[in-house]
Recover the amino acids of this structure.
């Protein structure tokens, strides 16, 4: 068997072969349409609706979400309609709050969510589309720093939080307060200066369009910032306005660290505590299995003292890694704050104990899906490479202790065009140094369009596979020719997002408005949504030929 470093790549191998019997994530659909069909076939009503207590819990959730969206000023008629669908099931994407709104892959996930939402509606089985706000995570570097292309080199123009939001911290993201408005104005001025180097390369009316779109997104960034106090609020305000007020998608934003939400799900940590030996044994079995297959597990071992949650320090908001110990027939979670050194001890013997302490308990990567499964009745989860990789271990272990899980689907990696990329790409192609901007690109794009017109699954998959090979082949050609070429270095940065050796995906490397400047904010999410047809293969990569 082919040896691959990351289990995420194994997922794509399984997705290409419907007869493959490898089972980590459960069912792995070949196409997005097949994912919808599988979800409809496997659909189970929300078990909470079988009791008055469960129905009351769902109603609490609905009432809270309506108020939350109104308070955040991202409430629309479609949001209201979709909130009422929650008991029937949901399609979920998730993301941590990130400075300035984060990279383009967030809009890609929203585009995938939008496309799947339409596919379910076309089948007469609408589900609630949910944006899962992962603001329980620690404030890591990728949350407090973002990147925009640089007009003179492959090096990124950096947008960071400087001294206001530490780039490496154990503080929970929802506790991170925003810098002062002067910090934002300063960075927007720097961004404007940086962008001018690109605008100079645009001629005629397109220059005016680009300026208008930049002014629009700056207004959006400012208004969402002014109306927010925390990093989490800023992220929700920004994406909620784009998705619901501008694009009218009716996306439901679920703030996972809000006290009301934590209270609703806290008791779902209990099976991880009650069956922790069973869970950790299965987890170790999966680590061994993945390793034997030649893949590198992306999570460490879980031991018998494993706690399924992090505790947030009441003094400074830092996340405390805890262990479970048994004392006098009680189960106690113990840890020490990495910030202030304050010891923390919580009794978690019963579900009632967990509910009582719910405000302090944040999920870990193992548990963030499972504890919300019943409440949101999740049928499909849109995941990126990182989630897919760690669920090779987590999904079988979670099922082992009795949780149901959704179908995990991987969104398509997207590459896209800009006027400056196209200009440089054509120059490189003329020099025979490698470039995406050549006739082959349009031949492949036409092939997929023809496949869509004729409802030809085989032709669509063939075109998408050709596109992936084409994009990767051109990258290798550029790398082989680019040891002393500043133009190739710039092109690899702008087009492939390669401003550092470990960066290899444009919509992962660059902040969201790199593409939004080309599409305009109104069409931004739909630009990604058009990547996804019912016959498109799950995962992979494709190219968006969007220009001003």
């Amino acid at each position: 068997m082919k040896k691959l470093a990351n289990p995420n790549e194994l997922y794509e191998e399984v997705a290409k072969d419907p007869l493959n019997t490898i089972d980590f994530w459960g069912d792995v659909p070949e196409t997005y349409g097949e994912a919808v069909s599988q979800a409809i076939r496997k659909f189970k009503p929300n078990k909470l609706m079988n009791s008055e207590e469960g129905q009351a819990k769902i109603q609490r959730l609905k009432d809270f979400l309506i108020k939350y969206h109104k308070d955040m000023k991202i409430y629309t008629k479609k949001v209201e309609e979709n909130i009422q669908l929650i008991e029937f099931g949901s399609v979920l994407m998730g993301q941590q709050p990130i400075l300035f709104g984060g990279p383009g892959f967030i809009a890609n996930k929203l585009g995938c969510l939008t496309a799947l939402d339409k596919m379910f509606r076309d089948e007469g089985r609408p589900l609630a589309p949910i944006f899962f706000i992962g603001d329980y995570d620690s404030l890591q570097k990728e949350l407090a720093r973002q990147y925009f292309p640089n007009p003179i080199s492959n090096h990124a123009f950096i947008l960071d939080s400087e001294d206001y939001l530490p780039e490496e911290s154990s503080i929970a993201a929802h506790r991170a307060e925003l810098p002062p408005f002067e910090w934002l104005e300063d960075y927007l001025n720097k961004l404007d200066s940086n962008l001018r180097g690109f605008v100079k390369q645009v001629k005629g009316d397109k220059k005016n369009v680009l300026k208008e779109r930049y002014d629009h997104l700056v207004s959006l960034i400012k208004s969402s910032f002014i109306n927010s106090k925390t990093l989490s609020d800023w992220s929700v305000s920004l994406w909620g306005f784009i998705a619901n007020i501008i694009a009218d998608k009716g996306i439901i934003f679920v703030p996972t660290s809000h006290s009301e939400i934590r209270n609703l799900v806290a008791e779902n940590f209990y099976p991880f505590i009650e069956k922790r030996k069973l869970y950790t044994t299965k987890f170790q079995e999966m680590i061994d299995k993945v390793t034997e297959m030649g893949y590198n597990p992306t999570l460490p071992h879980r031991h018998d003292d494993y706690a399924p949650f992090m505790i947030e320090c009441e003094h400074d908001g830092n996340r405390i890694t805890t262990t479970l110990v048994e004392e006098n027939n009680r189960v106690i979670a113990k840890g020490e704050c990495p910030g202030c050194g304050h010891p923390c001890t919580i009794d978690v013997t019963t579900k009632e104990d967990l509910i009582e302490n719910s405000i302090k308990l944040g999920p870990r990567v193992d548990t963030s899906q499972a504890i919300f499964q019943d409440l949101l009745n999740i049928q499909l989860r849109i995941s990126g490479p990182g989630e897919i990789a760690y669920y090779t271990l987590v999904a079988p272990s979670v099922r082992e202790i009795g949780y149901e899980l959704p179908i995990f689907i991987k969104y398509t990696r997207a590459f896209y065009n800009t006027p400056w990329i196209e200009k440089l790409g054509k120059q490189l192609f003329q020099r025979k140094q490698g470039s995406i901007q050549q006739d082959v690109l349009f031949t492949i794009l036409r092939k997929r369009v023809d496949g869509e017109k004729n409802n030809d699954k085989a032709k669509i998959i063939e075109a998408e596979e050709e596109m992936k090979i084409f994009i990767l082949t051109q990258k290798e050609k550029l790398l082989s020719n680019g040891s002393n070429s500043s133009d190739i270095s710039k092109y690899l940065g702008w087009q492939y997002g390669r401003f550092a050796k470990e960066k290899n995906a444009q919509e992962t490397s660059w902040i969201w408005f790199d593409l939004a400047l080309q599409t305009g904010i109104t069409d931004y999410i739909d630009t990604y949504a058009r990547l996804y047809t019912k016959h498109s293969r799950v995962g992979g990569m494709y190219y968006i030929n969007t220009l001003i």
In short: The first helix runs from residue 7 to 16. The chain has a mean pLDDT of 94. The two ends are 45 Å apart (CA to CA).
